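Researcher: We're teaching a course module on how sequence relates to structure. For the next exercise, students receive a sequence and then see the predicted structure as tokens, so they can try to spot secondary structure elements on their own. Here is the exercise chain.
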Amino acid sequence: MAPDGTVSEVPFKYGVSNPTALAVNPEGTVYVAKTLDGPSPRIYTMSVNGTQSYIDVPELHAPTDLRFDSVGNLYVVDSWNNRIVRIKPGGIQETIPPGNLDRPYAVHVDAVGTITVSNRAPGAGITRYTAAGVQTTIPLTGLDEPTGLDYDMDGNLYVAQSGTGPLGPRVIKYTPDGVQSNVAFPLNSPDALYKPMGICVRDGFLYVADQVYGILKQAI
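Model: And here is the predicted structure for the students to work with:
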């Protein structure tokens, strides 16, 4: 989708029957993960000149998110295997020490190498790794099936919650000093959330990909 709202399709010659994640590197190459591709799901790529290829990740199963860091490493969330795979620009693959990952869904990597991961399993919460590998759990209250996550320029964390528990689907804001609040998406209105799965924060706006309502935009 172009800034003016024009929508176009990107044809992949290999076919993308069940895409689950997408990322674009600084050079403009598009990376798409899909779960159904024979015995081994793959990550497909398309460069700006249209050249297409793919990356095989051994034992990859149910990739749910892709994210690049500031030096060009690609992070792949392999949900059913409870791991994060890092693919370096030269193609070397390594697994981030899993720690307390449990059904990981989304990943974020900041400029200093801090990795934040949402876990959909009950009680698993949000895992954070420092660049040195130290793991902590972000203490969010009432979290129920967290999915997408992102940070704004002030370091505030935004987490989409897709669960149908007492607090329902929502987007949580968590500040660097530990204050938790909900982003206002009024219930019983056209902007209500039903099943938010992905989020993105850009230029003072929060974009939410909802399985029912499509893409929602909210000022923050």
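Model: If you want an answer key for the exercise: Residues 77 and 194 are 24 Å apart (CA to CA). The first strand starts at residue 19 and ends at 24.
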